[in-house]
Fold:
Amino acid sequence: MLITPNRTNLNKIVILNPKGGCGKTTLSTNLASYYATRGPVPAVMDCDPQGSTMAWIERRPVSLPAIHGIAAYKRTMQATRSWQLRVPNETTNLIVDSPASLTSDDLREVTRDSSSILVPVLPSSIDIHAASRCIADLLLVAKVDRRDRKLAVVANRTRKNTKSFQKLMRFLDSLGIPIIAVLRDSQNFVHAAEEGIGICEMQPYKVRKDIVEIEKIVTWLDGWQERRYKSAESSLIEQAPNVTVFRKPGVSSG
Ligand SMILES: Nc1ncnc2c1ncn2[C@@H]1O[C@H](COP(=O)(O)OP(=O)(O)OP(=O)(O)O)[C@@H](O)[C@H]1O
Ligand SMILES: [Mg+2]
Structure:
């Protein structure tokens, strides 16, 4: 069982799509390196028996900002499960890299207590079909409520102006779930993965376009508490339309 701390200041970001090779690990490692550079130390929980994220952390140069890796796919006899899965106290972003082919139980477990869920999708008919099933399962099996606004899509490995890209964007648009970034198909991601770094740790002139998209994702993720607050506010208004809701200072009604 996955035990994650129920801390009010911890954004549990689950990267999920049972379709293999859509970019879950790429998104996880690039977000982790972005948060590591910004501080405080982020944590990455690798739930995939392939262990790709843990292998990336092992390749990471020691001179770079630290990332706390949690090998959740490993079962150890030496420590309790909660000790094995512990998240450092200072950590405010926990990224969960999930495996391909999740069962319904896995899906429920991995998304439990999540504050943000990102679904990377590739522009091909097969991937679009798989993504629509994944989103349906999230809504119906994992009972993710659209009104919680914690679910978003990242289009990955795109080549603009191609038919497959336009088809992907039409499909994503039809779901009514936000498409928060469009990552291009770029060798920068492949080189970064090989070196145990993220694109934000590469030479800026090479990665400017890619970083703009990663920053869009981070901006959306950073709004998790406000989204949670607004969703609680909306359900309160739905339940009791005549009740006056007092807003927290600094939170707009938008
Ligand atoms: N935007 C991109 N541009 C170029 N290559 C990419 C991009 N995103 C991912 N890749 C490459 O595609 C391959 C699959 O990506 P990744 O391992 O992140 O997918 P995954 O969803 O984690 O796969 P799995 O389901 O097997 O865990 C990797 O070789 C990765 O380097
Ligand atoms: Mg992976």
